[in-house]
């Protein structure tokens, strides 16, 4: 599949909406389990990933797949969907509305398309081929985006356990790395301190950030995150931050170990 033949926005959003409907059928009616890494998983995670596996294979049979809950399929080229059926499972289990379905498309290490769908809020954050939208509204470059209301940082909920963050504005934690990152891409959040994310947490959001002049970087040295390396497995070497080069630099300057 060439860049010219990338999935269009409507098709990606249609798959994400179907997946969100499956998740909503389980919402506030699930019993969580613990995976070997101690993270939460539910029957909804597995049902949504199974639907994504079927739908993506039916629509784009030549594209590979990597899913958080174990779905994997080799493609015929360098393109691969990377999916998180429910990003923010803890929020989902708690009955909070800030979880999402995340579908990213990588061409090797390069994020070329993605959609992050919040079913409860009815929101779609979508990117295809270097353009990004929020609910169908084109997103501007971050340097051109105005900030409405009080500026804030979004951060992983466990960051305070090991780090001191002397950010001059408000800090919010909403339960989903993908949602945090697309809030940065939208220009709502100034930056995000995402924690030790895996590739399925950020593949879709990375496409939105790339489209608006943002990026994902390692907290320790500010180097860009190689998504292909993350997709090959293993745990991330450090926390990941999202923002523009300027806001990432500002965030790195105010984060210290406790």
Task: Describe the model.
Helix 4 (177-186) runs parallel beside helix 5 (199-212). The termini are far apart. By secondary structure, the protein is α+β, with helices and mostly antiparallel strands. 44% of the residues are buried. The protein folds into 2 domains: 3-138, 2-Layer Sandwich (Fructose-1,6-Bisphosphatase, Chain A, domain 1), CATH 3.30.540.10; 142-257, D-Maltodextrin-Binding Protein, domain 2. It has helices at 9-26, 43-59, 89-93, 177-186, 199-212, 227-231, 245-253, and strands at residues 33-34, 40-41, 64-67, 72-73, 79-87, 100-107, 110-118, 123-128, 131-134, 137-138, 152-155, 163-165, 170-172, 191-195, 215-218, 240-243, 255-257.
């Amino acid at each position: 599949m060439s860049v010219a033949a990338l999935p269009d926005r409507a098709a990606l959003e249609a798959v994400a909406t179907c997946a969100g409907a499956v998740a909503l059928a389980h919402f506030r009616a699930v019993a969580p389990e613990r995976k070997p890494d101690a993270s939460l998983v539910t029957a909804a995670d597995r049902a949504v990933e199974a639907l994504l596996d079927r739908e993506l294979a039916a629509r784009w049979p030549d594209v590979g797949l990597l899913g958080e809950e174990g779905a994997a399929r080799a493609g015929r080229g360098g393109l691969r969907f990377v999916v998180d059926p429910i990003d923010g499972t803890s929020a989902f289990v708690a009955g909070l509305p800030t979880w999402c379905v995340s579908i990213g498309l990588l061409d090797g290490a390069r994020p070329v398309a993605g959609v992050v769908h919040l079913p409860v809020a009815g929101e779609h954050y979508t990117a295809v081929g270097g353009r990004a939208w929020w609910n169908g509204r084109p997103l501007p470059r971050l340097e051109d985006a105005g900030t409405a209301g009080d500026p804030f940082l979004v951060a992983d909920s466990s960051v305070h356990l090991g780090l001191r963050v002397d950010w001059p504005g408000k800090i919010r934690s909403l339960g989903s790395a993908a949602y945090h990152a697309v809030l940065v891409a939208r220009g709502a959040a100034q930056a995000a301190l995402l924690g030790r994310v895996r590739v399925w947490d950020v593949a879709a959001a990375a496409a939105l950030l790339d489209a608006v002049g943002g990026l994902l970087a390692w907290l320790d040295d500010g180097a860009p995150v190689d998504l292909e390396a993350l997709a090959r497995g293993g745990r991330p070497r450090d926390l990941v931050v999202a923002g523009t080069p300027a806001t990432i630099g500002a965030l790195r300057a105010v984060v210290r170990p406790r």
